[in-house]
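Lab channel / #folding
Pinned by the channel admin:
"Please post every new chain as: sequence first, then the structure tokens as a reply. Keep commentary short and put observations after the output so the thread stays searchable."

First post following the new format, from NK:
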Amino acid sequence: MHALKTEHLFSYEATLAPPEVIGPVVEGIRVNFWVTGGVVKGPRITGKLRPEGADFFTLRPDGVGLLNVKAVIETDDGALIDLAYEGIADLGPDAHARFLAGDPPTRLELRTTPRLRSTHPAYADLARRLHVGVGVGQLDTLSVSYDIYTVG
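Reply from TO:
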């Protein structure tokens, strides 16, 4: 059996604007969650999430949420890091119907695969690594928090 080794890269907390509900489309219910800012702290990256970017979220009819996030980290040393990831949140088989009835879940368990890209020499190697994210979304407070790990 092959061992899975991970190293904590950084954690972040982000604030979100109220959801922009596009509504039911072919794939499910589309909702945009725009990033309004955030704090990034960790052994490798420290800085802030810029108030731009969003999660272009889709809630499938089976209750699985698909994350599609684009954001920018500005590090304390002035670098810009492009943060993009897809992920999944299993909200339960009744989540789609509950959302349509006006009763969306307030807490989402989030699992992601972030891609990090930067031209800054201190962070350019991040694009050569696989990363995973474990997080929680709190729709009642319009916030998300993540721990991001590099897979070794």
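NK: The chain has a mean pLDDT of 96.
TO: also worth noting, Residues 6-151 form a domain with the Porin fold (CATH 2.40.160.20).
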